[in-house]
Amino acid sequence: MKIGELAALSGLSQSRIRFYEKIGLLRTVDRRSNGYRVYPKDALVVLEVIATAQAAGFSLDQIRTLMPGDLEKWDHDLLMSTLHTKVAEIGRLQERLARTKARLEGLIEEIEARPDDIDCAANARRVLSGLFDEEDAAATS
Q1: Spans of all domains in the chain
Q2: Is the full-model pTM beyond 0.70?
Q3: What is the number of other CB atoms lying within 10 angstroms of the CB of residue 9?
Q4: Whole-angstrom Cα distance, residue 119 to residue 89?
């Protein structure tokens, strides 16, 4: 299949497909004498794996390491180890985001609880300067 058809079937741009080919993720490309790229049917599967892995947070380097040259010969142990590692990374990210969210919600509450005799700018300075004082104390302890 030609690149236009592969792009239409995959939903990816031709330039994205050529990029994956250039960096070695899409290895099964033949060139005709006229210079046209011709892709086998499994190129669509490779592109789907790449897109799914990227959506799950894998870098292109991680995908390159993980993806076998032959889609029929996956390294089960490597695949499982990589997936477990990514799940753990996502868990750590979720924890960090939850802490950040809680901190921001606390800031919102403090700013919204502004005393009547202080304007918003002064209140924001008051609250945020307290935040930086807390961060400095935490960093030195």
Answers
A1: 1-67, 75-141
A2: no
A3: 15
A4: 42
